[in-house]
Specification:
- The chain is an alpha+beta fold.
- Helices cover about 25% and strands about 25% of the residues.
- The protein has a seven-stranded antiparallel β-sheet with strand order 1-2-3-6-9-10-11, with helices on both faces. Strands 4-5 form a two-stranded antiparallel sheet.
- The chain starts with a helix and ends with a helix.
């Protein structure tokens, strides 16, 4: 019996050791793959310790005095992320994904008469304004991740109203005016571009210019920045039934921040390469280089055709 117990113990130890070795090997394999991917894609975020920044919708993070803020839902699903410039106390961009399940309409627009635009609990008070500088400024609270893109749940919609997801926008640019605005026209078009009955995914990044002085409309009290330009860019991963494979397409928009109720988006379409030169931001840096290079170099006319821009 002692021999059998000893043998059984040895077998158990051998099994445990083997299992640990296999698990360790799998873990190292994953780490090595990630390291190899980072080496082959030097402009990616894969060397960043925050794994959220490795997602496709993320541009290259600036770092320094900027922080990444991600809002998740109670089930752990990522709602949207943003880069917050702590020195300028301003949003640099917001990025998010749009797909079938989070594009469903299950609720209405969140309303709170006491505090419609609450402070972001994830941003230290030393990096934000103590009050809402939008009020009395003459500018609307311009959503970057729109409320209308997050009607899948009350929790998801409420989070879009954090002031960290806002940039100041003129009423006739934003679209709150009765006749709309170019930003609202763009939002409607991009929302309609996703087939919510498919397995397609749209990766979105939007923001206002706060980094270059010649792209700032004005500095208001206490350093509150009003961007001079706004941008929106997206990559769609979609299934091409004709070619029987997954494909990618991309588009970018560049708008001067002025009263604009134009109904055509054609004049504002630019390549992602151009948008990167204008903003200094490296978009969709986590995509494989061959895909990234192809979609970012797409010219204006081809994007207008592929996305059916009118």
């Amino acid at each position: 019996m002692k021999i059998n117990r000893l043998a059984a113990a040895s077998v158990a130890l051998l099994f445990a050791t083997s299992a640990a070795f296999i698990a360790c090997s799998k873990e190292n394999e994953g780490i090595n793959n990630k390291q190899a991917q980072a080496q082959n894609n030097s402009n990616s975020n894969f060397k960043e310790t925050n794994p959220i920044t490795h997602r496709v919708e993320f541009p290259r993070v600036k770092g320094g005095k900027s922080i990444i803020v991600t809002h998740t839902l109670s089930d752990g699903e990522v709602n949207f992320s943003l880069e917050w410039d702590g020195e300028k106390r301003s949003n640099r961009w917001t990025c998010y994904q749009q797909y079938a399940s989070n594009s469903k309409t299950n609720t209405g627009r969140w309303q709170n008469k006491q505090n419609q635009y609450p402070s972001d609990p994830k941003i230290p008070y030393t990096m934000a304004f103590s009050d809402d500088h939008f009020y009395g400024s003459g500018y609307d609270h311009g959503h970057l991740c729109p409320s209308a893109d997050r009607l899948n749940s009350k929790e998801a919609n409420r989070q879009t109203f954090f002031i960290s997801n806002m940039q100041p926008q003129l009423k006739k640019f934003n679209g709150s005016d009765a006749n709309g605005g170019i930003w609202l026209t763009m939002e409607h078009k991009m929302r309609a571009a996703l087939n919510i009955n498919s397995k397609d995914t749209m990766f979105v990044c939007r923001g206002g210019t706060i980094d270059k002085e010649n792209q700032i409309k004005e500095h208001r009290r206490d350093g509150f920045i009003v961007p001079g330009y706004y941008f929106s860019t997206a990559v769609m991963k979609y299934y091409d039934a004709y070619r029987n494979k997954w494909e990618y397409k991309a588009i970018a928009f560049w708008f001067e921040h002025k009263n604009n109720q134009d109904k055509s988006l054609k004049p504002y379409v630019i390549s992602i390469d151009e948008l990167e030169q204008l903003t200094g931001i490296d978009f969709f840096c986590n995509l494989p280089d061959d895909i990234e290079n192809k979609i970012e170099a797409a010219d204006k006319e081809s994007m207008i055709k592929v996305w059916n821009i009118i």
